[in-house]
Amino acid sequence: MKRIVIVGASHRCLTMFVRGLKDMRGKTLEFVGIYDPNKTRCKVFRDEVGDSLVIYPDFDTMMKEASPDGVIVASTDNTHARYVIGALDYGVDVYCEKPLTNTYEDCLAIREAEKRSGKTVHVTFNCRFMPYFAKIKELLRSGIIGKVHAVNYEYMLNRWHGGDYMKRWHGMMEVSRGMLLHKSTHHFDVANWLLDDEPVSVSAMGTRSFYGNPERCFGYRCSTCERSAECESYKSQSAPMDKALYFDAEHEDGYIRDRCAHRPESDIYDNMAVTVTYKGGTLLTYTLNLFSMKEGYNLTITGEDGMLICNNFGKGFEDKGEYEIILMTKENEVQRITFPIAEGAHGGGDIKLREMMFGAECDDPLGQSADSFAGVVSAMIGIGANESIKTGKHYDLASAIDTLR
Questions:
Q1: Cβ atoms within 10 Å, residue 55
Q2: Strand 148-158 vs strand 296-303: parallel, antiparallel, or unpaired?
Q3: Model-level pTM?
Q4: CA–CA separation, 158 vs 350, rounded Å?
Q5: If you write DSSP's letter for every residue of 305-329 in order, what string do you get?
Q6: Which of 62, 85, 331, 370, by CA, is between 20 and 30 Å from 102?
């Protein structure tokens, strides 16, 4: 039975791992320790797991006393590298939330730590496990559209979802390095995986077009705002878990979960356009918008012999019904491929990801399991894109990635 410890008492960790792995707890794994600077949040996890989950005062004490077999890292993005490297140096496997990290220096340090430790880093890229993307992967592998020349990927978040990022620590460039790292790392990784190719250069543009407008900043936080009915980004914080994890924990560290989406302190881009070139010659054009009227994505993959149109604009991953992939050949024949939307969070991806990471040994014919190299390659696209926005120049990904092998 694997002994697992947790770094970062986050909502994502609670739902994805602690609750998501409930059926495995006590059988194939057990949670034996947790560390987070905020002990109130840690107590929420202990209430969920039981007294067997020990709350530790610091990371090193936990690693020495709990003697874990694995560490789940779900802390803020700018601390991932510290704990990933720390766990590896203790000789323990790591399961890290995306992004693996958000600087080139940390990418390099993680890869070096993994090599010297002989242990393994797993990155939680759940897009790979969504049946929808798995089907696209199968179609591309079959060669049905021939060599892929172009990928057009347009992703939009509505003002409730996109605005929510602006309210949290994610809205601070110093902590998250922006959505091209925190959010887009999913999308860059799935593009790399679908193409089975490596990026060689990236260029990007980014602005803060909608959020941060003082005329839309009606109050300091949602819970005390008197004009919430007028705000498209308003979010009620009445959910019991939000109260337990954040509202009841504010007294410890002052972290406020429901700050105004238009607060001036949120300095990340909310409107981004990225172009990536690949070794094989494929060109990826990608956009991310955090203030759309509706939410969803448009994905078109154009090959030598046809194209796949994979558009889910206005449809959430938890919607019921069917997904559709349109296959068009160069003879203008059209085939509609439909299948039911999978049960579970993120289009069924979370369930399959947990099974791959913590279940019984299983085959991985599509290569869905993501290692540290996949993590750093995805991160480098976001890191390079941010640098390109600053300098107005292309960023050489090939040279950076070669140092990370």
A1: 16
A2: antiparallel
A3: 0.96
A4: 22
A5: SEEEEEEEET--TT--SEEEEEEEE
A6: 62
Q: Tokens representing 226?
A: 């008197």
- N- to C-terminal Cα separation, the chain: 32
Q: Which pLDDT belongs to residue 317?
A: 46
pLDDT for the residue numbered 330: 87
Nearest Cα neighbor of 259 from 271, 246, 240 is: 246
Single-letter amino acid code for the residue at 389 = I
* pLDDT tens track for 83-106: 999 999 999 999 999 999 999 999
Query: What token pair was written down for 307?
Result: 């194209």
Closest CA to 309 of 322, 298, 295: 298
Q: Apex CA 81: angle with CA 83 and CA 190, to 5°?
A: 120
Residue 347 near residue 131 (C-beta atoms within 8 A): yes
CATH 3.40.50.720 range(s) for the chain read 2-126
What SS3 class is residue 195? helix
d(CA 45, CA 48): 5
Between CA 400 and CA 385 the distance in angstroms is 13
Apex 368 CA angle, 98 and 27, nearest 5: 80
Contact 53, 110 (CB under 8 A): no
The C-alpha atoms of residue 84 and residue 81 are separated, in whole angstroms, by: 5
Q: Which long-range contacts (CB under 8 A, 24 or more apart) does 353-362 make?
A: 353/124, 353/125, 353/126, 353/128, 353/129, 354/16, 354/17, 354/20, 354/21, 356/129, 357/95, 357/122, 357/124, 358/2, 358/21, 358/24, 358/28, 358/29, 359/24, 359/28, 360/28
- Helical pair 80-89 and 104-117, crossing angle rounded to 10 deg: 10
CATH 3.40.50.720 fits 2-126, yes or no: yes
For CATH 3.30.360.10, the residue range(s) in the chain are 127-211+266-398
pLDDT at site 195? 98
Spell out the CATH class of 127-211+266-398.
Answer: alpha beta
Could you say which residues of the chain have pLDDT below 70?
A: 237, 314-321
